């Protein structure tokens, strides 16, 4: 009996992504010859490597599940997507048995290693190898990868701290030791405000999102020169960064006060839930750090993680069938 799961709807696919650490998906069609040619290889991998809650093999009929095809921008048959922690990590176009076999078996080995001694939510959260600070909210996946890094625009940033891209780095903050305390680090992978405690962060996205929550990691410095953010004003769908004076005169989409009890002692991370109905179809998010929790001169942020649902990247084009080719 086949262990491969036939996806029946977008919600069914979302449920699979949330319930299995690794998901391998075959986008295929009845009319696609290369799809049929590689199907036995895919079924053999599924039979050998499927493990409940760890590795799940799925098939998406592109003629029946056009919403899923559009969401993941599938333009050729067959296409194989590999997800870790609900996040796409690899895409293989064409009937490439060797490439598919190698990629899937590498993931199976990683899953086995994680079972033996990998990090879990208790030591910082793990989403397919990414450090998330805390477990993802139930029913939603991490969408941080949708941030348009090239379009980031931060105001009042201290040039002696890390680059603005540092807050979206996938790894655990270098200043966080195993017990959740600040430690000395020569790698400045965090950001700090400059002339006062305020920061303005303009974060554009590659596609429209539905945002549910934000994980903010802030590790207080031992010198007490920098503090955690406290009051945040969030603005959705701005076309550019707001100036500080402009922000004072612009109604925020949501105002947030982070309480001391929200900061996890071990990960130094606060989980901030948004008013979900106000953050639908979001193309950008502006975060105004109004003040910090303390009397220090600067505010510090080590990591930002976003959770919700990814939307459309672009309109779906005509599907094509491809064989052994591996490029565009």
TrEMBL record:
Residues 117-131 have a biased composition (Gly residues). Residues 178-190 have a biased composition (Basic and acidic residues). Keywords: Disulfide bond. The keyword Transferase does not apply. Residues 132-326 form the PITH domain. Residues 108-135, 165-190 are annotated as: Disordered. It comes from the Eukaryota. CDD domains: TRX_family. The keyword Disulfide bond applies. InterPro entries: Galactose-bd-like_sf, PITH_dom, PITH_dom_sf, Thioredoxin-like_sf, Thioredoxin_CS, Thioredoxin_domain. Coiled coil: none annotated. Residues 1-109 form the Thioredoxin domain. Gene3D superfamilies: Glutaredoxin, PITH domain. GO terms for cellular component: cytoplasm. Belongs to the thioredoxin family. This is Thioredoxin domain-containing protein. It comes from Zasmidium cellare ATCC 36951.
